[in-house]
């Protein structure tokens, strides 16, 4: 059974930092695009960041560019999201996602490009 499990969420003050991790099990994702999305109450799930299998291509939402950094460790089957300079508007449930297709980096900002999803981790930024 394939599972993606996020961790590292929590409560932080404005300007603070958090590091989210996503640990995958059940199969390797060393050949697959992985991404992070978030969903705030009453809003649609939105793209945050994506990274290809070789760590040579990354995409970021404009709202997080310069503040968030996505990384991955294929040996550990993990993907991380370093979040700095957090703002109250970053408050949301953050989801890790993985594409099931090998060696495909197409529409990484679309939720439709991902087959596997984690359960999410809550990030709350207080003002």
Structure description:
The chain is mostly beta strands and 127 residues long. It has strands spanning 3-7, 10-13, 18-25, 34-39, 46-51, 58-60, 68-73, 78-83, 92-98, 116-117, 121-126. Strands 2, 4, 5, 6, 9, 10 and 11 form a seven-stranded mixed β-sheet that branches.
Set down the secondary structure blueprint.
Layout: E1 3-7, E2 10-13, E3 18-25, E4 34-39, E5 46-51, E6 58-60, E7 68-73, E8 78-83, E9 92-98, E10 116-117, E11 121-126
Parallel strand pairs: 2-11
Antiparallel strand pairs: 1-3, 3-8, 4-5, 4-9, 5-6, 7-8, 9-10, 9-11
Short summary of the structure?
With 127 residues, the chain is mainly β. The chain has no helices and 11 strands.
Q: What is the N-to-C order of secondary-structure elements (H for helix, E for strand)?
A: EEEEEEEEEEE
Low-confidence runs (pLDDT<50, min 5 residues)? none
Mean pLDDT across all amino acids: 97
Structural class: mainly beta
> What is the radius of gyration computed over CA atoms, rounded to a whole number of angstroms?
13 Å
**Strand composition percent:** over 45%
Task: Please work out how many helical segments DSSP would assign.
Answer: 0
Which range best describes the helical content: under 10%, 10-25%, 25-40%, 40-55%, 55-70% or over 70%?
A: under 10%
Q: What is the molecular shape?
A: globular
- Biggest sheet record: 7 strands, mixed
Distance between the termini: 40 Å
Q: What is the strand tally?
A: 11
């Amino acid at each position: 059974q394939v599972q993606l499990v996020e961790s590292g969420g929590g409560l932080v003050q404005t300007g603070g930092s958090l590091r989210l991790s996503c640990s995958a099990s059940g199969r390797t994702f060393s050949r697959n695009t992985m991404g992070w999305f978030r969903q705030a109450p009453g809003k649609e799930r939105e793209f945050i960041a994506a990274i290809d299998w070789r760590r040579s291509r990354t995409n970021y939402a404009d709202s997080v560019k310069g503040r968030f950094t996505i990384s991955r460790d294929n040996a550990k089957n993990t993907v991380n999201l370093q979040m700095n300079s957090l703002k109250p508007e970053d408050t949301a449930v953050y989801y890790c996602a993985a594409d099931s297709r090998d060696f495909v980096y197409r529409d990484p900002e679309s939720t439709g490009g991902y087959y596997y999803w984690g359960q999410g981790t809550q990030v709350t930024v207080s003002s």
